[in-house]
Amino acid sequence: MIELTAEVVVAGAGPTGLMLANELALAGVDVVVLERLSARSGLSKALNLQPRTAEVLDLRGLLGRAEQRSFATVGEGHFAAIPVSYAGWDTRHPYQVGIPQGEVEATLEERLVEQGVTVLRGHELTGFVQDATGVTVTADGARVRADYLVGCDGGRSAVRRGLGLSFDGVEGRGYGVVADVVFRVAPAGVPEQWRSMRNIVASHGAGVFHTLIPLGPPGLYRLGYGDRLRRPADMRAKVTDDEIRQVVRERYGEEVEIEEIRWASRFADDSRLAQRYRMGRVLLAGDAAHIHFAAGGQGLNLGLQDAMNLGWKLAAVLRGRAPAGQLDTYESERRPVAARVMDNVATQSALIPTTAEQRAVRALVTELATLPEVQHHLSGLVSGLDVRYPAPPDAHPATGTRLPDFELEHGYASDLFHSGGFVLLTTEPAPAPHPEVTVAVVPRLPWPGVTRALIRPDGYVASTTGSTEGWIAA
Ligand SMILES: Cc1cc2nc3c(=O)[nH]c(=O)nc-3n(C[C@H](O)[C@H](O)[C@H](O)COP(=O)(O)OP(=O)(O)OC[C@H]3O[C@@H](n4cnc5c(N)ncnc54)[C@H](O)[C@@H]3O)c2cc1C
């Protein structure tokens, strides 16, 4: 049994936990990461980074590393398999990065190790007790005393259950299967490289859908299929090679030949949101706080942005730069974002037609989605670019929105955030409003009439006056 102390224990080294641990380590917080598995599985549910996630990784100098491990750049997103362009957004990254989840995790863990933090593997959190001064976390073979615990331990979160929080939502009726398949003879007409969402997803008949995404190497594809109305009798039953071969034969024809099925998994379409994201010294992030059907490619992206929102706030509270109450803004900002994603996922599910009326609705939405304003709205929903955090009623409309990146004489505005602090962007020289704030004089700001903006470590506008009030303790 190892006995440790830390400022923060992160339970779970999936994408959310690794991102959060990186943010905490960057801020100089003593963090311990406990992971149940003894080695990274290498398996990848998610395959994409949305534009806002690309921006967020860029704020920390991590995007280039992730892109080196990517297998595709996809020039658009999709909403219920209807392609939607990101072109209307002021972003340097109007595309999805095609990258397996395992490679996102590898990128984040590589940076974490460079920051001196090693994931403690083979230590499943089994319980915790919080009191007025901290949390005692018990895991297989380890006990850690810490100031805070964050449950990044996935949809079946032991931390969420330990808090006794409800995980309410909608129990889905359907299911999906994903499998990585190598074809000796691939289906005719499917793209060999993933460049767009066209010809990637198709729905066939009442509620049934199929997807085929090329993963880079010749013949290797991510096969997906499912039914949003019916589930197999045993959802936990292993997906057999015979099942996959049969689906491929029926959908893509007898002439298609499978060389290898690398892995396969069945998943449900339940949608659930944790009742609270914080109880005292224990918080939830990522799938531990929200789960939904994998429509539009959003879950991993949501988790990484939870981590980006929470990391600097926890560090500020631990260093006495903010009252503990600032942690409540993590819930008040991020829980509505997850609820909104769950709504858009429900809408996407409803657009997989099961009746003639729904087919007509889908046809109409497909037509509407060719209009630039509709594209903008739908791509904003799935990309995370439209996230706007609550702001005082008299604040400038930019307050609470993301800073669109822009070029400076040397580099980009995003480079100013690599160290994870607040930045005052100003068009005229100005004194730092607080020792914690870096001042950068820039030729212009992205909002007409705004000459000064205090930007939070996660890239959102704190104020357009430069005031640190409410953000950093005096
Ligand atoms: C089929 C499918 C396809 C998907 N495709 C996409 C996509 O294209 N794009 C997208 O954005 N999202 C997608 N998602 C969603 C995405 O995979 C998840 O949202 C993402 O994995 C959440 O990351 P996380 O770190 O919060 O949780 P997880 O990835 O579940 O990680 C949790 C970690 O905690 C560990 N753990 C669990 N319990 C304990 C414990 N008690 N103690 C210690 N460690 C523990 C686990 O071993 C794991 O390593 C998909 C999901 C599915 C099912």
CATH architecture of the largest domain: 3-Layer(bba) Sandwich
Bound molecules: flavin-adenine dinucleotide
Largest beta-sheet characterization: 8 strands, mixed
In whole angstroms, the N-to-C terminal distance is 42 Å
Strand tally is 25
β-strand amount: 25-35%
- CATH class designation of the largest domain: Alpha Beta
State the share of residues found in helices, binned by percent.
25-40%
User: Spans with pLDDT under 50 lasting ≥5 residues?
Assistant: none
Broad shape: globular
How many domains, as an integer? 3
Which class of secondary structure composition applies to the elements?
alpha+beta
Q: Determine Rg (CA atoms, Å).
A: 23 Å
How many helices? The count is 10
Mean pLDDT: 94
Oligomer: single chain
CATH topology of the largest domain: FAD/NAD(P)-binding domain
The CATH superfamily of the largest domain turns out to be FAD/NAD(P)-binding domain
What are the key terms here?
474 residues, alpha+beta, FAD/NAD(P)-binding domain, Alpha-Beta Plaits, Glutaredoxin, 3 domains, eight-stranded mixed sheet, five-stranded antiparallel sheet, binds flavin-adenine dinucleotide, FAD-dependent oxidoreductase, FAD binding
Task: Provide structural commentary.
- It contains ten helices and 25 strands.
- It is of the alpha+beta class and 474 residues long.
- It has three domains: 239 residues, FAD/NAD(P)-binding domain (3-Layer(bba) Sandwich), CATH 3.50.50.60; 94 residues, Alpha-Beta Plaits (2-Layer Sandwich); 85 residues, Glutaredoxin.
- The strands form six sheets. Strands 1, 2, 8, 9, 10, 11, 19 and 20 form an eight-stranded mixed beta sheet that branches.
- The protein starts with a strand and ends in an 11-residue tail after the last strand.
- 46% of the residues are buried.
- Flavin-adenine dinucleotide binds next to helix 1, strand 2 and helix 7.
